[in-house]
């Protein structure tokens, strides 16, 4: 690692949550709470940041939640938007019940689920879907990939959704991941995890149209880029699944300028709480020692810069 790259090392977890697949961290400014999901356990967790682990509470659902967003004009302690297995839903936080407001398709496809998502500057929800039973393609042989390609590898997509409509914006993907925007809202980034690439698009804020697709960043490590957030200077903080780290990427050069190391391999996503970066992880049931012990826990570290506030969904 270059001496010019800023480095942080996190030795202990902040929350020992034992998530099977921790994901989707989101900070509620109004309540001072961090919420995040455990996709495989079908759980939504909340913790008061100022109080820490003793304040942890959990909502158990009957469907996997994958990503959440605040709804414009609605108290997030009452209702939030949530990506679930079949599409976009609204969760009644108090009743712990949800209503599916826009499915990916009808009838629903049991082999698919939502993955990650984000809300654009005008409040439209961009939600990814992927095949349920693929985590990382690095575990498959070339022969196996050839066999399954026509069956499931191109079923993933990114949708533009609200309660009234849905539109496929990026079809024929395998594991599409976080959509996120530059500070001026004119560039959309989307991670394609199994391709180990982050795409960039010119983004028309008013229409929601995307153009000029290009590969912004190509990852040459053994892991796969998973979820990310953008800071106020436009740099991407990208979790790398399988490498136990988060990398900070310069938007003008696509070079790595920072790295956070955590003591478990499967880093999944990040989120800013002030100048602290919260990092979610997944279990490492095939690992050993520290990585296995700390898999599924939540970490945080002060990186000295703030992130962009995520947009509210206009229901």
TrEMBL record:
Q: Which residues are involved in binding a divalent metal cation?
A: 23, 177, 226
Q: Which family does it belong to?
A: Belongs to the SMP-30/CGR1 family.
According to its UniProt entry, this protein's organism is Fusarium agapanthi
Q: Where is the active site?
A: 226
Could you say which residues form the signal peptide? none
SUPFAM superfamilies tied to this protein: Calcium-dependent phosphotriesterase (SSF63829)
Q: What domain of life does the native source organism fall in? A: Eukaryota
Q: Which UniProt keywords apply?
A: Metal-binding, Zinc
Among the GO molecular function terms of this UniProt record, one is:
gluconolactonase activity
User: Does the keyword Heme feature in the UniProt annotation?
Assistant: no
Q: At which positions is substrate bound? A: 113, 115
What cofactor requirement does the entry state?
Zn(2+)
Identify this protein by name: Senescence marker 30
Q: Where is the SMP-30/Gluconolactonase/LRE-like region domain?
A: 21-282
Co-factor remark: Binds 1 divalent metal cation per subunit.
């Amino acid at each position: 690692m270059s001496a010019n790259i800023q480095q942080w090392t996190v030795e202990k977890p902040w929350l020992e949550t034992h998530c099977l697949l921790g994901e989707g961290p989101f900070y509620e400014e109004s309540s001072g709470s961090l919420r995040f999901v455990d996709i495989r356990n079908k759980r939504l967790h909340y913790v008061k940041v100022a109080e820490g682990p003793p304040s942890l509470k959990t909502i158990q659902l009957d469907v996997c939640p994958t990503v959440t967003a605040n709804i414009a004009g609605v108290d997030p302690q009452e209702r939030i938007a949530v990506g679930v297995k079949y599409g976009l839903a609204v969760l009644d936080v108090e009743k712990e019940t949800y209503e599916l407001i826009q499915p990916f398709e009808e009838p629903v496809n049991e082999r698919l689920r939502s993955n990650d998502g984000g809300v654009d500057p005008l409040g439209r929800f961009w939600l990814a879907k992927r095949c349920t039973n693929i985590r990382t393609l690095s575990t498959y042989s070339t022969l196996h990939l050839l066999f399954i390609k026509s069956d499931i590898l191109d079923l993933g997509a990114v949708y533009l959704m609200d309660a009234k409509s849905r539109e496929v914006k990026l079809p024929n993907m395998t594991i599409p991941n976080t959509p996120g925007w530059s500070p001026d809202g004119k560039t959309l980034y989307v991670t394609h995890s199994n391709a180990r690439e982050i795409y960039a698009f010119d983004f028309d804020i008013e229409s929601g149209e995307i153009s000029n697709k290009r590969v912004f960043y190509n990852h040459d490590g053994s892991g796969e880029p998973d979820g990310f957030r953008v800071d106020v200077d436009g740099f991407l903080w990208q979790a790398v699944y399988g490498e136990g780290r988060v990398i900070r990427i310069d938007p003008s050069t696509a070079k790595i300028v920072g790295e956070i190391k955590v003591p478990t391999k499967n880093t999944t996503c990040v989120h800013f709480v002030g100048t602290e970066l919260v990092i979610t992880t997944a279990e490492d049931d095939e690992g050993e020692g520290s990585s296995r012990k700390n898999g599924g826990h939540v970490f945080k570290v002060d990186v000295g810069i703030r992130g962009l506030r995520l947009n509210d969904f206009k229901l």
